[in-house]
């Protein structure tokens, strides 16, 4: 970490922030793993029971398109080129969207904590690390 400047400002380096973010992600690895497992299960269920349909050709979507739909839904983008046509599929899509919101919030919180921890370590000085 760099020492404070003459005016008392503490300069943070991106490397230190990314290191703190990585540490935080390591702490929440069980949550991330649970979200990944949930995503995989919901994707398989969508393929098996959600009746995803490619909207231009009105044909059943192969697994690759179903995976694409689930990823786009979890990222909360939702292009609408592949849609579920069953009630179960629509519920599944909502759950995928919720997983995406939780995952986004988790990464934002991790980034904020990374900046906070890096600033705290930088302000503590080398003797207190």
Mean pLDDT: 88
If strands are numbered along the chain, what order do they take across the biggest sheet?
Answer: 2-1-3
Low-confidence stretches: none
| N- to C-terminal distance | 10 Å
Q: Major sheet, described briefly? A: 3 strands, antiparallel
Strand content: 5-15%
CATH architecture: Orthogonal Bundle
Radius of gyration: 21 Å
CATH class: Mainly Alpha
Portion of residues within helices: 55-70%
Protein structure class:
mainly alpha
Given the C-alpha coordinates, what overall shape results? elongated
How many DSSP H or I helices?
4
SSE order, one letter for each helix or strand: HHEEHEH
Find the count of extended strands (DSSP E, 2+ residues): 3
CATH topology: Helix Hairpins
Can you tell me about this structure?
The chain is mainly alpha-helical and about 130 residues long. The protein is built from four helices and three strands; from the N terminus they run ααββαβα. The protein has one domain (about 15-120): Helix Hairpins, CATH 1.10.287.70. The chain has helices at about 15-25, 30-50, 65-75, 85-125; strands spanning about 50-55, 60, 80-85. A hairpin with a 4-residue loop joins strand 1 (about 50-55) and strand 2. Helix 3 crosses helix 4 (about 85-125). It is elongated. The mean pLDDT is about 90.
């Amino acid at each position: 970490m760099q020492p404070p400047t003459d005016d008392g400002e503490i300069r943070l380096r991106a490397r230190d922030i990314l290191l703190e973010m990585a540490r935080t992600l390591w702490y929440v690895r069980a949550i991330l793993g649970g979200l990944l497992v949930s995503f995989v299960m919901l994707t398989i269920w969508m393929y098996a029971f959600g009746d995803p349909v490619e909207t231009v050709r009105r044909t059943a979507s192969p697994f690759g398109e179903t995976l694409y739909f689930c990823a786009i839904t979890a990222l909360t983008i939702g292009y609408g080129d592949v849609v579920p046509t069953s009630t179960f599929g629509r519920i599944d899509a909502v759950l995928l969207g919720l997983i995406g919101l939780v995952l986004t919030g988790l990464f934002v919180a991790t980034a904020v904590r990374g900046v906070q921890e890096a600033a705290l370590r930088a302000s503590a000085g080398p003797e207190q690390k």
